């Protein structure tokens, strides 16, 4: 009776303590939830503040010329808070660092981001910067000939796999040293370093990988015996640790009955006849490691556990294929050459410029309507004109022309093209020229330099200043030493201007700037060129000068 109030008080105290604990737990949970919510709300702000600080540090370092440190800061800033302003600074930093391909790709991403944001000014700026960089991008082509394209071939560039669809295509890459490697199952890996400069184009051919004999000679793993067969193997006549024939010594079975699963014939590791020797070896013995019917898991003592009849890795007499000498490197096939080497080259474009004709004499048609006179011993002779004894004189003619140009040749190498060039056009105000001849072009970075020999007809519409007749040499002394005399043309009978034509010979120096390099695996592979070709030609009756400029596309 005395204990009942005490128990009641005790029970009440427990209930009160439980209520207090539960209330405290609820308070802690509320506090934890509030803290978690605050953390979620504050963390983006913290990341943004860190990104802003890194952006400022990066810009400051870039101004001080510490470009590598600046780019690292800007990369971290963009990772924390990817914004267009940060991407612009990062692209400019990589451009200063010389990573032109990386910067070019970032300008493209910046243009896309600015387009989504509706920032047309930034989009235009990104496009302009990217287009400027595109002219100086190095490009590397990884060529994989058919002989090298074995099953499972993996080609990597600086450790990154290159998709098979991109083999044979020129890809922008940063200037500097790069590592190209190739590997395939059962083949020896290949690796090569290539150095490429700004604006340079190179092709790296992946050779056919040599077979790896060591991989072919490795024994196939023996099949594991089922768990249910373990008591049978342990109770066999000649066990794994029993007397008679040891597990590693000469004799019989290593882990199974009769002649062991891991060491057929003679001992697996140190037997009288070698473990890897063909015929009695561990992987190619007369009695296989896991021969069905008489395996290590079978009740009958005897043969191996994994291969029918002979050994699991091959017949008794089959030896592994001989490996090629280590000094021999497989030769790349002829298909590994660049696509534009050893192929035809065609260029076509529009041309325009100035044509200057300094042809002071010539014929303008039928001169038989004119006559001239000169002294002979008998007196004065009036002689009729014709194209043989009379010719017209002209003033110089200068005028613009418009036309086209073409080059057809053969790519001796990636930087040397041989062929023929044709240039022609119509001269405004009257006239024409069509010239052509052999040509050679050599590339120096982003510039092609060429030399062409030209021949062809040239015509110009020029003002006629008069007509002169030829005096025979035997009577020159009677005409005051003159070899020709002015034709007695009636007033108004001479045309104001006429077309004078001549056959001209000469040459031109061709300078072409690559505006856009557009390599591809298709027929459109080539480059857009802006060219100037100062031309000098000697006509039969004077000189001809031309200053053409052309915009063309060279397919290679």
Proportion of beta-strand residues: 25-35%
Rounded to the nearest angstrom, the radius of gyration is 46 Å
The number of helical elements comes to: 7
What distance separates the N and C termini? 113 Å
How many β-strands, per DSSP?
21
Mean pLDDT: 74
* Secondary-structure class: alpha+beta
Q: Helical residue percent?
A: 10-25%
Shape: elongated
Please mark out the parts with pLDDT under 50 across 5 or more consecutive residues, or reply none: 1-15, 37-42, 220-339
**Largest sheet, if any?**
12 strands, antiparallel
The secondary-structure element order is HHHHHEEEEEEEHHEEEEEEEEEEEEEE
Tell me briefly what this model is.
The chain is α+β, with helices and mostly antiparallel strands. The chain has helices at 3-63, 67-80, 84-97, 100-117, 120-134, 213-217, 230-234; strands spanning 139-143, 154-157, 160-161, 170-172, 176-183, 190-196, 201-205, 344-358, 361-362, 371-376, 379-384, 390-394, 397-413, 416-427, 431-444, 447-470, 484-486, 497-518, 526-532, 535-539, 542-555. The chain is built from seven helices and 21 strands.
């Amino acid at each position: 009776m005395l204990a009942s109030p005490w128990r009641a008080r005790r029970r009440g105290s427990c209930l009160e303590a439980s209520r207090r604990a539960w209330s405290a737990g609820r308070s802690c949970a509320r506090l934890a939830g509030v803290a978690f919510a605050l953390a979620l709300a504050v963390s983006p702000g913290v990341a943004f503040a860190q990104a802003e600080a890194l952006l400022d540090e990066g810009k400051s370092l870039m101004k001080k010329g510490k470009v590598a440190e600046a780019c690292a800061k800007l990369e971290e800033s963009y990772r924390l808070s990817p914004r267009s302003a940060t991407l612009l600074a990062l692209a400019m930093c990589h451009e200063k660092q010389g990573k032109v391909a990386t910067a070019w790709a970032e300008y493209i991403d910046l243009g896309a981001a600015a387009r989504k944001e509706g920032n047309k000014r930034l989009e235009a700026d990104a496009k302009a910067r990217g287009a400027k960089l595109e002219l100086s991008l190095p490009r590397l082509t990884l060529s994989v000939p058919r002989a090298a394209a074995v099953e499972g071939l993996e080609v990597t560039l600086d450790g990154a796999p290159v998709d098979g669809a991109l083999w044979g295509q020129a890809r922008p890459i940063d200037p500097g040293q790069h590592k190209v490697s190739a590997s395939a199952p059962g083949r020896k890996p290949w690796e090569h370093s290539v150095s490429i400069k700004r604006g340079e184009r190179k092709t790296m051919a992946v050779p056919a990988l040599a077979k790896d004999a060591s991989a072919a000679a490795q024994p196939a793993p023996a099949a594991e015996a089922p768990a249910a067969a373990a008591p049978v193997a342990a109770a066999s006549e000649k066990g794994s640790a029993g007397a008679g024939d040891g597990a590693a010594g000469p004799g019989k079975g290593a882990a199974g009955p009769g002649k062991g699963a891991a060491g057929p014939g003679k001992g697996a590791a140190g037997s009288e006849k070698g473990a890897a020797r063909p015929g009695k070896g561990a992987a190619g013995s007369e009695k296989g490691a896991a021969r069905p019917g008489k395996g290590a898991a079978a009740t009958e003592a005897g043969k191996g556990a994994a291969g029918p009849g002979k050994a699991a890795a091959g017949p008794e007499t089959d030896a592994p294929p001989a490996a090629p000498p280590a000094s021999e490197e497989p030769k790349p096939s002829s298909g590994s050459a660049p696509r534009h080497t050893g192929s035809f080259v065609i260029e076509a474009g529009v041309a325009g410029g100035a044509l200057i004709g300094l042809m002071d004499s010539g014929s303008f048609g039928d001169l038989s309507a004119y006559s001239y006179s000169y002294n002979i011993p008998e007196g004065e002779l009036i002689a009729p004109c014709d194209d043989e004894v009379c010719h017209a004189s002209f003033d110089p003619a200068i005028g613009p022309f418009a036309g086209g140009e073409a080059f057809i040749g053969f790519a001796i190498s990636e930087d040397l093209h041989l062929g023929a060039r044709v240039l022609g056009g119509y001269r405004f105000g009257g006239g024409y020229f069509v010239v052509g001849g052999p040509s050679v072009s050599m590339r120096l970075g982003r510039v092609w330099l060429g030399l062409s020999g030209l021949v062809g007809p040239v015509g110009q519409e020029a003002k006629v200043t008069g007509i002169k007749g030829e005096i025979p040499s035997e009577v020159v002394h009677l005409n005051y030493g003159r070899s020709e005399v002015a034709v007695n043309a009636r007033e108004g009978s001479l045309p104001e201007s006429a077309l004078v034509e001549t056959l001209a010979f000469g040459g031109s120096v061709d300078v072409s700037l690559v505006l856009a390099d557009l390599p591809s695996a298709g027929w459109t592979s080539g480059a857009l060129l802006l060219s100037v070709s100062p031309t000098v030609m000697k006509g039969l009756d004077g000189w001809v000068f031309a200053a053409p400029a052309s915009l063309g596309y060279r397919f290679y």
